[in-house]
Amino acid sequence: MIARISALGNVGVRWLTRFGALASFLFLTVGAWASLPRAGRRVVRRVFLNQVWFTAIQAIPLIAMLSGILSFIVISQAVRELGQIGATELLGTLIVVAIVRELGPLLTALTVAGRSGTAIAAELATNRVMGEIDALEGMGIDPVHYLVLPRFLGAICSVFGLIILFDIVAVLAGLGAAVANGMTAARYFDIVLASITFRDVWLSGAKGMVFGIVIGTVPAFHGLRAGKAATQVPVAAGQAVVVSIVGIFVLAAVFVALS
What is the pLDDT of residues 167-213, one digit of tens each? Predict the structure, then answer.
């Protein structure tokens, strides 16, 4: 019994140690902007734009497709079922709460974590394996400035923008579903506009920022901590995605509890 408790305690200590190291890495990344040399800002800007191009621009078709299909299915079923009991005014609450506030940020973050989080972790782990990180440090260049910071900022901006796209497409796809099931466009927009509030918009944007921080921090953290063996690249990528997904779900639950 004592051995089991001791083993459980050791696991808890390891998780707390990793969480502390991750939190320290996050603060180091946030503070890197203040100490970034002026000569390096052009490099950081270029990497940032490349990250936004890969994470946000190239993901637009995927996010739009997921949002459109999800919204069309949910709203089609909702219009039919709510119409039978004369409660179509609840359609706005369903769109705002279930899709705009909850599913939109969550699905967007999970998609970006699986797509771009893997790429960030694998890229930085490869840099570590190839000795490029050591070369930068040997030249007195902080890897956090040129490798982590632009990807961190790019992930935040990308997730925030993609969540906005997800919500817009969801509302438009919901319009198509509502019209296809006999509801007028005017009635649909009256219901949606009557249900959405500034608080819903604020919560959706706040989730985009927080989830973006997770996706910009966790993969970079695991990528830089990879070992020198080539087999460490997929290990780092896998760990980054798993931890990112768990973190996103935990934070989503925290938002629900606090709201």
Answer: 889 888 888 888 887 778 888 888 788 777 788 888 888 899 999 99
Q: Which residues contact 196 (CB under 8 A, 6 or more apart)?
A: 92, 96, 100
Its pTM stands at 0.87
Supply the DSSP symbol for 181. Answer: T
Measured CA angle at 228 (ends 227, 229), to 5 deg: 95
* Residue 46, amino acid: R
Domain extent for 152? 2-258
Query: With contact defined as beta carbons under 8 Å apart, do 222 and 244 qualify?
Result: no
167 CB-side CA count, 13 A? 24
Tokens of 123: 């890229």
Burial class (CB in 10 A: 0-12, 13-18, 19+), 67: buried
CB 222 within 8 A of CB 125: yes
Give me the phi and psi of 35, to 5 degrees please: -100, 10
- State the Cα–Cα distance between residues 212 and 156, nearest whole angstrom: 4
| Tokens coding 252 | 């989503």
Q: Residue 77: CB partners within 8 Å, gap ≥ 6? A: none
In the chain, the number of structural domains is 1
- Residues 6+ away with beta carbon under 8 Å from 8: none
- 114-147 residues labelled b (16+ CB within 10 A) or e (exposed): ebbbbbbbbbbbbbbbeeebeebeeeebbbbbbb
